[in-house]
Design a protein that fits this description.
By secondary structure, this protein is an alpha+beta fold. Helices cover about 40% and strands about 20% of the residues. Strands 1, 2, 3, 4, 5, 6 and 7 form a 7-stranded antiparallel β-sheet that branches.
Length: about 220
């Protein structure tokens, strides 16, 4: 099933950022060999991290920083190098802020249901609450769970805005739906009210998909 991803910091995403940086650095190898100071000053964030690391490696080995040798050094940089990984994660965090801003114009007239499930070492725990958000951008600006190693915001197969957090004990999820009216109040609700809340709410996916031009989920039996 196609995943309509809004933002994620999973391994594939960070790897993709670093791969883009390495490709950009390789394109600048000739310029770097001829004029390293000016090339570094003009390089974009991340590409400069790769160029500097490759340059130091080549020069440190007492080799001439020829373009081909720099390309070889760039290609050999470990994607799990701590400094490179931190830089990529920092840039990806900025991407999340960008997505938040992209969705802030989607204002919410009614409170939002949060249906969550935490995968814990001793089993799972389900939560349900109703919270007011001014807009959808505010929803994705913070993580509903703390201590997650990887996080993803997406539109799921039910056309719901969904958060998935992965941690060492399991997976935590949250689904966000807007109430059709304000009649249910804003207090936490009991788990046995979930069916009624689903009937009294609507998915946020259609609003988000329109912003990004995402395809609608395939129709299937059991869609809400």
């Amino acid at each position: 099933m196609q995943q309509n991803i809004i933002w994620t910091n999973d391994t594939d995403q960070i790897d993709a950022i670093i791969d883009d940086w390495k490709q950009g650095a390789a394109h600048l190898a000739t310029a770097m060999a001829e004029n390293p100071k000016e090339t570094m000053a003009d390089a974009t964030y991340g590409v400069d991290v790769i160029l500097e690391k490759a340059w130091k490696y080549v020069v440190g080995e007492c080799e001439l920083p020829a373009p081909q040798r720099l390309v070889e050094a760039i290609e050999s940089i470990d994607e799990y190098d701590a400094n490179v990984r931190i830089a990529a994660d920092d840039l990806n965090t900025e991407y999340r802020a960008d997505e938040r801003d992209n969705l802030r114009h989607l204002e919410l007239a009614h409170p939002v249901i949060i249906l969550g499930k935490a995968g814990l070492w001793n089993g799972s725990r389900t939560i349900a609450s109703v919270v007011r958000f001014d807009n959808i951008g505010d929803i994705i600006s913070d993580s509903p769970w703390t201590g997650m190693e990887y996080e993803t915001w997406k539109i799921d197969g039910h056309d719901d805005l969904r958060y998935v957090g992965v941690h060492h004990d399991g997976v935590n999820t949250c689904t966000f739906r807007e109430l059709k009216t304000d009649g249910h109040g804003e207090k936490p609700i009991e788990e046995n009210d979930l069916r009624a809340l689903l009937r009294a709410s609507r998915p946020l996916g259609p609003l988000v998909r329109e912003v990004y031009g995402m395809p609608a989920p395939a129709k299937k039996h059991g869609n809400r």
